[in-house]
Each structure stands twice: as C-alpha cells, then as structure tokens.
Amino acid sequence: MSSSVLVLRNISQRLLSSHQNTLVPLFPLGCRHKSDVNLKDVLASLIPEKQKEVAEFRKTHGKSKVGEVTVDMMYGGMRGIRGLVTETSVLDPDEGIRFRGYSIPECQKLLPKAPGGEEPLPEGLFWLLVTGNIPTQEQAAAITKEWNERAEIPNHVITMLNNFPDRLHPMSQFSAAVTAMNSESKFAKAYSEGVNKSKYWELCYEDSMDLIAKLPTVAAIIYRNLYKGGSPPEPIDKKKDWSWNYTTMLGFDNPDFVELMRLYLTIHTDHEGGNVSAHTCHLVGSALSDPYLSFAAALNGLAGPLHGLANQEVLVWTTKLQQSLGGEVSDQQLRDFIWNTLKSGQVVPGYGHAVLRKTDPRYMCQREFALKHLPNDPLFKLVSQIYKVVPDILIEQGKAKNPWPNVDAHSGVLLQYYGLKEMNYYTVMFGVSRALGVLASLIWDRALGLPIERPKSFDTPHLKKLVGAQ
Ligand SMILES: CC(C)(COP(=O)(O)OP(=O)(O)OC[C@H]1O[C@@H](n2cnc3c(N)ncnc32)[C@H](O)[C@@H]1OP(=O)(O)O)[C@@H](O)C(=O)NCCC(=O)NCCS
C-alpha cells in the first residue's frame, strides 16, 4: 500500500473518530447540521488536511524527478510515463487494482452489503473512493438515500432519448443524455455567477452526486426504448439500493442478478488515472467543464473497442465462435479459431492490457461468481475453455505484452445468463459504474485546485532536433 494512501487513511480515521466529540474545521455550503454519515461533511473535514499534505509535499519535493520520457513513449501512447496524480486507486501490473489501498477481495469482505447480500454495495465503494475509508453500514445507507432522492431526470432528456433512432448506439445515446443533463449543473451555474474558486469542489460534489443518482434511470430508459418497446422504467423505490433499482428499472427481478449488479457496478468503477475514460474526465474537467460535460467525454472514450466496448466485442466474438463451431468445441478447434482471428489482423477481445501483466482480478472475481452461481452454464464453460487456450497462443504469437484476460472477457457471460442478452448495451452498464471512480477523482481534482492540463507536444522535426537526430 502506498504511503500516501496510508497517510490519508490515518488522517481520515483520526478525523472520523474525533468527529463525534469535536467540531470539524470547515463547513460546506449552507448551514446544514454536519454529521459523520454525510459524505459531504466528512469530505469537508478531509480536504484541508489533504491540501496541506500536498502543499508541503510539493514544497519539499516539487523538483524531485519521478522518471524520464523517451521518444518511444511519446510515439507509443505515453505508455509508462508517470504523469498523473490520481488519489482514488492505483493499478499494480501483477496484482491488479487497489481501491484506496484495498484489493478487490478485501473490498468484497469489508464493504457494506445489502441485507442478506454477499456482494459489496457500490455506494460503499464510492464512499471509500472519496474518503479513503471503509464506510459503516449507516454511511453506505446514507449514500443510497441521497442517490434515491436525487434520481429524477429532466423532461427534456426523456424527450430527447425517446426521439433517438434505434440505430443510434446505446453509448452514443448515453453520452448525449449526460451532456444534455448539464442544464442541471450547479457548478456551471455558480461559475457563471462568479463563485469563489474555494467552492469548486462543493459544486463538483453536488453535480457528481446528482449525476450518479440519475444515471441508472437514463441507462434504463435507453435499454427499454431499444429492447422493451419503449415502456417506461419502474419508478425509483426508496427502499432499494442503487444497483437494485437499476436492475428493476431494466426489468429484471432475480435476486442473484441484483447481487451480480452490485458486484459488477463495484468492480468497474475505477482503474487508476491513465485509462482513456478516467484520463478524459480529468482532462476535460481541468478546463472547468462541469461534471456532466466531463463525464460525457469519458463515456465517449469508454465507447471505444479497445476500452469499454471490448465487453460487447467479447460477446460478439464468442457468439461468432459458437455459430461457426457449434456446441461442444475441442481445444484444437478453439486454437484454430483464435489463430484465424489473429491472422485476419484482429485482436482477441478481452485479452491484453496496457498496464496489467497478470490475469485481471476483476476477471477472477467474476469467474468466482460464475463458479458459485452458474457453474454448468455452457457459455461459462466456453469462456473457461477460452481462458485455458488463449494465453499460450498470444505468447506464441509474441506480440501482446500481456496474454491474460481482462475484466471484459467475463462480464458478458454473466449478463447473458440472467437474461440481459443485448450485447450492444453492455458498455452502458460499464459507464454507469465508471462514473463512481472518475467523478470521485474529479471532486478531488477541484479540491486540490489542479490546473488546466496542458502537456507539451512536438512535431517529428522538432523532436529529432531535440534528441540530436540527423
Ligand atoms: C488492451 C489493449 C488495447 C492494450 O494495448 P497495448 O498496451 O498497446 O498492448 P500491447 O503493448 O501488448 O500491444 C502490443 C501488440 O500486441 C497486440 N495485442 C495486444 N493485445 C492483443 C490481443 N488481445 N489480441 C491480439 N493482439 C493483441 C497489439 O495490438 C499490438 O500489436 P501491434 O504491435 O501490431 O500494434 C490490447 O491488449 C487490446 O487490444 N486488447 C483487446 C481489447 C480489449 O480487451 N480491451 C479492453 C482492455 S481493458
């Protein structure tokens, strides 16, 4: 665990434990009674400490070097350049993601669950991402309550969604709806009225909470318009948690599916700061575009086949495989099919990663869910067989730096099993979850006063000159 994570956790635990008895130093907007189950109040107490920590760190180590940049890195998608600070999660190439220092199995164990449930509530993970602390049951419940209260979406967004043609991809509909919801942005309104910079984080927080609350309804309308004849989703039920409401609004009621959704919406939230969606949200937000605009930009990145759309691609590819090879498939048939994919110049979707060098723990926890709930499902068996065969082939081909499966190799089979078979829709669900990570980061970007992002670029002649090339 990194020392900064430890420091933040220690600070926040200290503040939380002292919270019952003492006044916290900063009040958020308005004069609400502050409380340790209110995320904004807790955040308000953490921010000054973190601001101080970063200011002191920069004062003493601001000129320290953290790496070097080579010409290959510049042409190679900036791979390996240490150029971003993201507080919410760190990705280890071998171990996978840690959310504020906690691995996925630790989150599964420690985060609050729904009554009778075994999987973590995304509400709890959001609290963890924002504060660095594992929340209590009460704190997670307070998030559920707030999101249920903030879930209403503006009429013009419903009208817009209802008028989109069926051929418009669900991700395009999703990002357009999120952009259009910036009519509700408290950040944009306050900025236009000249709000003081010190209040940016509070407005960003308010917009982020509103936006996260509204996403399941927007996403469910898209699903129902495209695949369920346009019947409106069930209204939000204040007794249900965020994932449960989303599942109901989509039109499903199997409690095991609700559990899957809690897990799915937890593990897709965050993958440190350099991935396309997280980096895009951070970049666009650095121009002080409001959280709706910043997150819509992130969704457009997530819609790319090398990023979030890979979960759709995996199912498309696996379905083609089933169609061309039939039911029972031998390992040799599978190998031939995979080699044909590679020889035709395509990637094997769901395999490889820019940072990871081992099997993605997000793949493993979905596999464990499948082993528990659907061990005999034919598609799950096929996905397991593919897992046995693909890595050796990618190693033999010798191109991919990571031959192991990522998160997208497994999510589709689980959704199929519970009846959500429309694979074009899968990335929307990824997007609903990703909001939690990138918006938690965006709040901290504004709290730490990070400036507009503007790295230096060169053209090839200048770069050649710079390195003394002929
Ligand atoms: C994720 C991904 C985009 C990472 O890209 P990257 O960091 O450039 O990966 P690498 O450095 O390992 O790529 C080196 C080469 O191996 C290839 N490669 C990587 N993963 C591959 C895969 N799953 N199948 C076939 N070839 C692959 C790359 O296309 C590249 O080929 P090139 O030299 O001809 O351009 C890449 O692994 C990929 O396309 N995977 C499939 C899509 C996917 O699952 N995306 C979701 C990621 S969470």
UniProtKB/TrEMBL annotation:
Which reaction equations make up its catalytic activity? oxaloacetate + acetyl-CoA + H2O = citrate + CoA + H(+)
Keywords tagged on the record: Transferase, Tricarboxylic acid cycle
A Gene Ontology cellular component where this protein is annotated is: mitochondrial matrix
Q: Which biological process annotations from GO are given for this protein?
A: carbohydrate metabolic process; citrate metabolic process; tricarboxylic acid cycle
Q: Which CDD domains match?
A: ScCit1-2_like (cd06105)
Pathway the protein contributes to:
Carbohydrate metabolism; tricarboxylic acid cycle; isocitrate from oxaloacetate: step 1/2
Q: What is its main location?
A: mitochondrion
Among the GO molecular function terms of this UniProt record, one is: citrate synthase activity
Name of one Pfam family that matches: Citrate_synt
Report the locations given in the UniProt record. Answer: Mitochondrion matrix
Q: Does the keyword Heme apply?
A: no
Annotated active site residues, numbered on this chain, are 307, 353, 408
Q: What's the family?
A: Belongs to the citrate synthase family.
Oligomeric state and partners?
Homodimer.
Q: Matching NCBIfam families, A to Z?
A: cit_synth_euk, PRK09569.1
Protein name, as recorded: Citrate synthase
